[in-house]
Fold each of these.
Amino acid sequence: MSETTLPDLAHALESEISIHGHADTNTGATNTKLGMWVFLSSECLFFGGFISAYLLYKGRIVSGPTPQDVYNIPFTSVTSFILLMSSLTMVLALASIQRGDHRRFRIWLFATALFGAVFIGGQIYEFTEFYREGLSLSENVFGSSFFVLTGLHGAHVTAGIIWLLTLWGMSMQNKLHVQDSERVEIAGLYWHFVDVVWIVIFTVVYLIPT
Amino acid sequence: MTTTIEKVIVAPEEPQQSVLRQSVLRRPKETTGVWSWFTTVDHKKIAILYGATALIFFVIAGIEALLIRLQLAGPNGSVLTAAQYNTLFTMHGTTMVFLVGMPLAVAFGNYLIPLQIGARDVAFPRLNMFGFLVFLFGGLFLYSGFFLGGAPNGGWFGYTPLTSAPMDAGFLPGRGPDFWTIGLIMLGVGSVTSGINFVVTILNMRAPGMTLMRMPVFVWMMLVVAFLTVFAIPAVTAALIMVFFDRNFATNFFVAAQGGDPLLYQHLFWLFGHPEVYILILPGMGIVSEILPVFARKPLFGYSVIVFSGIAIGFLGWGVWAHHMFATGLGPVAVSAFSLATFLIAIPTGVKIFNWLGTVWGGSVRLKTPMLFALGFIAMFTLGGLSGVTHAIVPADTQQTDTYYVVAHFHYVLFGGLVFAIFGGFAYWWPKVFGKMLNEKMGKITFWLMLIGFNMTFFPMHFLGLQGQPRRTYTYAANMGWDKLNLLVTVGGFIIALSVAVFLVNVIVTTVKGEVAPEDPWDARTLEWSIPSPAPEYNFAKVPQVKARDDFWHRKYTEDDQGRLVLRPSDTADYQGAVEERVDGHDIHLPSPSYYPLVVTLGMPVLAYAAVFKEPLLVIPGMLLLLFGIYAWAIEPGTEEH
């Protein structure tokens, strides 16, 4: 399978699709994929609510640390970069399982989960540091809106890591085959979405000055 | 072509499960009996579950309303204390919006969408059952507050800082706001899943030839509603999470002294709340658009205009939320913009009213019960729409805010609109769902009692409001000049209750010894009438090939040389027999029943109680149920091999 040319691959995938009836929906996208897209569009509004709250409360701090006091931009840039790279490994993982290369698929998928875990580790470190510097949930509006927004994002990333590791475990037991690649694709959609949300958060929360 | 399409319709959920075919629990097989109702994934059974549960909540909310009216029947009422009154108006509103209005629309959508687009089930049958169970448990959870330290008492809108202040601040006694925020977050999860399900079903699972512009208007309206639900619910979920954090973890989202802004809550709430109004009314518009053409024996006048104005309402509905907040001092620019948008949204709504009138105009009208309710809808909804436009006039709105004028307005839209449409829908589709005709005489009595009772209840409220009677206030003094009208309103409320009682008697009597319904009792136009009554489990023995809008009508009728309507000869090669034969159907693969929606949903109230009582130990069993359910669900195939 690894020796096939691209047109062969496309043909194989196409026949796979028609065997399993994938492309026979009215839109051409499978139900699960379309459902995932609709779900993610719903999530945009969810994060939008918390991002608006953060922006609204910018510069309204009555007491306690301000963003300038606690942010460590170089550190967060590094963990953000790692999270972004996990999107690349996710793409590579999907491409691997689609051409039946299970060994590489497992490596890239595990790397994705690992990068996500590094990001979460960084977030835990950052939260502890901020807390030590006097920023808590209840200290001021900055603390409230910052921790709830980034904490909920972190919860989403954590759910994604569990999802990826589940797929990885299934693959290790040879329970995930080429024809199951859409499961990986769906998980990937979610993962990329969580990354994109972080790009927005990093830009508007960390980088735009008060 | 046909075979592949049938394959998709047969196994709609994850059809590619190659090796994942084991299940943790033995798969439930029962399709009859009590237990089958907990494990079913059949969209028709789930629709009945939604409908029955919502009707029970409707009766409960009605009783709450009657208690409120008893209290307000005369000045200085002593039926209820102020605290009880707060609880009752909060629960009446919350119940009617989240446990009656939305679930009833989902009930109709669930039953009708697959039948009207020619599909055998929805896109995600197990997710469908999950949505229902979340609604059921979410409703029970909200009401359990009555027994566990305080039912919600901060209004259906739950304004901050009233609801967000910590319990020991004493703003609102008891755990009411906690039950309310957590309960609504839970119900939101159910609504979003059913919204996703409807969007995917409508976009992906239409029968061959069922193009978007051939879809019945009801399906179109449900598509708009599903999108609105998916986008609106997360806004309020975010707001509710902030309220919960403020109340329980001392965050400062709505603490003004710390720079927080209580108005942020109102913005987020109404960003959900106004689309919510359209989530509630558009299904009613869809139902009426189905009933009118059948009983006027004319095609719907201006189909595409109705569809596009429905979509326009869906878009404009996002730009008018702040008209709920004119009295909060938003500043002249924001107020002008939202006032203008509110005037604008009256246009597509008005267009629809003229389309409905155009449909009835010149038709051979049969005044059966469904038609009476549909016509009642048009009249009552128009009145509600007119008083709605007055809210766009900012000075007038400032005067009317928090008075009974507003109560009158939104009851004309939601009761005169949605509830009339729902009762019309009951009368219209009852034979298809249960195979029995509802009694026509009792149906008409229901309609006239409801019309009279409704107007007696809500029309005087316009005057009471303009005379200054405030909403959400548990009593009033004797010298205000409001006594007589308030008594009239209370009497009207009991007439509505009587009409609902007649309907329930009608249901019981016809279930016991009603006339058996034929396939197509109304000589209708859409696909659901082309199959036997009640609809068989597999819906369509043969997936229909759709050739026109109102396809079923064209299977039955054609025009002669002079353009007169004539019955189509039944042996025309173009069309198979108009009404399907009932077949055995055991070789049609359907999604199999499943335990896991129930398992996952059982975990949710456990987590909800953990949140309300801050009991971390409860999180463990809750998470275990949730995770076990999700994993077992994921590896269970949607359809068993036979």
Amino acid sequence: MSFAKIPKPDELIAVRYEPPETPWMDTPTVFRPGTWSYTGTAKSLTALELPNPRSWQPTDEDWKLPENWKEIILKGMKERLEKYRSFRLFMDICVRCGACADKCHFYIGSGDPKNMPVVRAELLRSVYRRYFTQSGKLFGSLAGARDLTVDVLKEWFYYFYQCTECRRCSVFCPYGIDQAEITMMGRELLNLVGCNINWVTEPMANCFRTGNHLGIQPGGVKDMLEFLAEDVGDRTGVHVEVPLNKKGAEILFVIPSGDYFADPGTYTCMGYMALFHEIGLDYTFSTYASEGGNFGLFTSHEMIKRLNAKIYAEAKRLGVKWILGGECGHMWRVLNQYMETMNGPADFLEVPVSPITGTRFENARSTKMVHISEFTADLIRNGKLKLDPSRNDHLRVTFHDSCNPSRAMGLFEEPRYIINHVCNHFHEMAEDTIRENTFCCGGGAGLGNDENMEMRMRGGMPRAMAVQAVREKYGVNRLTCMCAIDRAVLTSLMEYWVPGVLVTGVHELVANALVMTGEKERTTDLRGDPLEGKTADETL
Amino acid sequence: MNLLTSFIAVLILTLAALGFAYSTGLTYLLTVVIPYAAFAVFMVGFVFRVVQWAKAPVPFRIPSTCGQEKSLPWIRTNPLDNPSCLWGVIGRMALEILLFRSLFRNTRVEILQKRPVYDSAKWLWFFGLLFHWSLLIIVLRHLRFFIEPIAGWINSLSALDGFFEIGIPTLYLSDAAILAGLSFLLLRRLISSRLRYISLFTDYFSLLLILGVVGTGLLMRHFFPADLLQVKNMALGWVTFSPVVPKEVGMLFYMHLCFVFTLMVFFPMSKLMHMGGVFLSPTRNLANDNRMKRHINPWNAPVKVHTYEEYEDEFREKMKLAGLPLDKE
Amino acid sequence: MKLYNRGIILAGIVVFLILASGPFWYGRGRAVSPPDLKLDTPAIEQLKEKLCVEPAPYMRANHMRLLNDWRDSVVREGKRTYTAADGKVYKISLTGTCLECHSNKEQFCDRCHDYAGAKPACWDCHIIPEEVR
């Protein structure tokens, strides 16, 4: 990956928080290279039957909007104000106390005042006031209202695709105003006139057709999973099976496609396989539901539902009892907060019971989908795993709470419990940067593309700096996380800000420590890196 | 700019109050007609806004979770920051509304030696809380003018509020506190360039208006006393529908009234509606029990999905080649 | 009109309306006559000109401050006379001067103080003379 166009870290961190002279309404939006994402291609929009497919880029003067774009947006806004209480409420009750301002990683990293959640919301609020409130209609700018113009639309595009929907601001807001919700509305509106980014639309189009973001066809999924199973065999000496599309399996296992497609996610995937083999779990992967991630979350509620439908459908078709979900961030926001409402009820499934420990997952009794860290923590608690944490002694580990499992679920203790049982050297980052206060990787919500690299590095800076602090203090060399986007995005973030720290999934660490029946003497970890006290030669 | 406009607006109100004071007809208007009108606007407007929110459903259960979820029985949960049942939600809302729980988390970030540093920043929470509680106490204390005989608890509240018996008449702690709170809230908007940048007219105007109400009230209590007999006669007149025009109550009193009525009319059409809105915030008032209990979306619209049949139809040959099981051969 | 979470929101609105209009309910629309302050004590009856130390409107608004000044001037400065705006000189004494005329505390002082919810501190130190009670 090349960082040619991005300033050096030393320059990037010289952030000034002094706002410009001109009020934000009068400050034009500049599409600076490195801070925006390429637009959704006509092909992907067409595949999803989304409006206004065309070829364009935000730097173009003419965005080729439909003739009546303004009418479409205002109509869309009206419709959403009537459909979402959150939207109308969040438009109405902000007092601009500023508590959210310096909570946004993009503001902390860029100093651009329009990245303060309050102003990002005002971009939309100002238009709401102008067309949907009496005071705005009567008093105009005095009431903080402004007309909807093409420039305003461009500003929306720039800043709503500069928000990763991480919800950190909503933790600090005294009224719980959630910028993620406002960004979602803003993006829905932009999508009505065909303004989306390709790093969102293409994965969606792929996902809709092939079941996963990367467009991998059934045979490909099989090959990749089997290749990973072979790797598990090489490293552990244990041959593991890859159950795929297996009817009558007890559990359907859904993971983000990043986990079988690219490093370092693949090691996590190997981790799942090794674990399931060892405990003898009757499960299956699916090629049709070969993606837990859901970029619909970054587009519209309608798209969430369209892409999510396959999970329950596949569970029903395969006749499984319940569903287990892998390590992914926004996937779990969808599974936890949207799936059953949209595509439920899941009355054809059974309340999840761990076949190994007999634990009934009461907390998932309705949705019937369990997070793998809940599942594994339960295994460890019941002493079902033989673990040798010293096999992770070559790693100094810290843990990054991914935004969505943190702030849309509250999954904090399970991964820590697991890590503490599989590692001897675990060091937490600063309190202000973990758990519900966790910082985004800078590339969530579809922004993890390369053309947006400068903004990613800026947005990821608070996270990276927290890692750097534990690296200096404890020599941390591994950043653990439970999210496929994190595993991809944090890797380049670490390369840029904190070289020497690699990114890892929790289940990679689990499998490293897992003592398997019939295994050979382990000299390397899942990556093939030598274990502490073993020489590299022995691995050959 | 926004500050200047709001200042001018408050000044205009002050002048209007002067006009009211010096013309008999207008005095009648201010003390007999406008009170009812302002009160009606406040009540109707407030309810209208809440109803407007209520008309929109909450399609998804989207609480912001700020603590450990309820999962395995041996994992300690955080029922107040991540409630999983109604009682937890009630607790969370109570903390939020009575103690400003979320604001208590506030931090401040600075880049020091090329590192972002997070400091605890609780002043906003402290003065915000001070302001809101004082305002509530002051409003409750004012009930002494509206009911006769005065209920015991109001007298007790006043006695408690004036506990230190500083000066004659006693200085109420809530009066001092609200001044401190308001000054802080206003000064931070003026001094911090970031706050100045995000402040709208309505932000300054609300503060200046309430400052006007408080200021005139304090001046009347401690420096230019108004005849309380007249004041109470007037206030009781309103609530018993037999309004009387007070005599010789002084300039400040008219200003006080004028500001209060403006506030009442301004309230429902402004951000001050956060008073009602905070109760309805879906990121706070819902339990994180999504996976335990299905949330129903009343408009759950049908969408076009890609079914397994369509998927298999497209990839059948390839699936066969890969040795994957098929539904239809 | 369809309202969502109808029950709880309507309940909230009703609570708000009741609280905000509380005083109306409390008064139940009955007009309350202002307190009847009795100025018919024997001492006042005997006065030729029915005047307090200062004009009545001033006294109504400022008597607490006047009394406070009186207390300070006696207790701290030892000054026991007060010269009114019209030049008349009075002896500074709550019992001797004020209560001399207003010998009906209950029908005069208390009625108004109770009405306005004022809590004078006079009786923290002064005893209430038997005949005034």
Amino acid sequence: MAMEAASTGKKERRSGILQRTDVRAGWGLLTPAGIVILAVTIFPIIYSLFMSFNNIQLTTNGFQFTFTGLQNYKDVYSAPLFWHSVGFTIYYSVITVAVELFFGLLIALAIQNVERLKSISIIVMLIPWALITVISAQMWGYIYNGVYGVLNAILQGLHIIHTQVNWLGQPFTAVVSLMIADIWKTTPFVVIILLSGLQMIPKDYYEAALIDGANAWQSFWNVTFPQLRGSIALAGLFRILQAFGIFDLPFVLTQGGPGTTTTSLAMLGEETLFTNLHFGLGAAVAISTVILILGACLIFLSAFRGMVGEEAQ
Amino acid sequence: MTKPLSKRILGYVVLIAFLIAILLPFYWMFVSSFEPNTDISSYPPAYFPKHWTFQHYAEAFGQFHFGRYILNSVIVAVISTFIVLAFSSMAGFAIARLPVKGKRPMLIFLLIISVFPPLVVITPLYMLLRDVGWLDSYQALIIPYTAFNLPFAIWILRNYFLQVPGALFEAAKIDGSSVFTAFWRIFLPLTTPGLFTAAVFTFVACWTEFFMALVFNPSNTMRTIPVGIALFSGQYTVPYGTIFAGSVVSIVPIVLLVIIFRKWIVSGLTQGAVKG
């Protein structure tokens, strides 16, 4: 080392200084983003964890903390409503995402097979993606309205129903109505991801399948689907993560009702925190939600690894 | 290679059905925003309005505060987007091109951060904002929106900076320019597509965010569009005409954005999927 440094002399030292200024500049450039992320995400996450072990009261002197250990968690886990919203959030997410992946694949394949309408389809699909969820919720609320909603008019016109239905007023139809509104808004996102996956499949694979005498169905199962599994899994992961946080749609459409049927975890957390002002309990709900989400991610990723195998690594 | 006719026909049928399914609710909202109240709440509804009126638009922007909601949303989204672009391009450049340690952990850390739901940070932030008296202010939204959009923007821009040949950086240094000059004069202009992508994604995320806006800025003059529309309700009935008039106006910028930036949006979604 020493001999090498001596033999190259000046040049070596100069690049060492340059190297060091580069390192310093690097940290300098990382600092603003780092500070904001630490202050607004990392610090609050740790603070939430701390809050969840305390009973917190809002007094005239501000917030008063009393350490209560695991009491908040005991209270949360013994509340039937918590388990109800865990169940609702899970089955809601799994069903909507599964339906979205099915329709998404169908539509991506359709776009792949047509020559016109492609760019207009992209524009039309991106509008729901960029649409404020609250607006889509009001729009669907009007469509589902039990008194003057257009859905009743259409279904009565087709003689599928005979009397007007209050879609958001009964548990089963309320859940399905929420799911449809959600699927309407987020399927386009899935389509775009799957479409780009489809476009990356080499054309010769299909030609080889054609030469081997495969029909359309066989070439789908043996070429398209295996090649697309990575994109499907990633679109699914993104959507599951989003769906787990569902809040805007039930907040406007059902307010968590009828009763508590459509109370998601995020809605339960928000209610505990800001309607009932139980900050400690709310923090325990929030931390439990995070654990659930991280768990879901791990399950999904390990399933994904098993499905895609080594080639995705 | 042209596709067989049967496949193409099937493709068109599925695609057109899908496009109609997407557009119909919009048509319904658009049409209702021009109908007088008696027509909006009549059953069965008319599929094409019999009477047209601008009454709801006048109400939304005269009597009610939709103009203010839109202004609030624009201020918050535009300022957040600029801060995100500044901070994320700096950080993305450092991760892509400078010899800092721990790049991999940093990138993985950013991914994990973006998985956390807002629910877990919202209470501590609320308490903090309350203590410093920043509830119902623009910074109450700009700061968290910046933080939540930085991870994706840093990832995207890092990928773009990696595509610029590293030799350019060495050449700039030999010419005696500082790291910052090389970043500002050489790298940033070459990554404009990445900046557009990051900008559109941040803007849309800020424009549509509801949860934090609801909790941090509930007062009527500080509401953003989603909060204004969610909390807008009449005494006995939901005033759909006024809500839809405000909604139609606030969809216009999004439609323009999508038409102008669709290439970058698609590339952002795709990159997120491939590399994320």
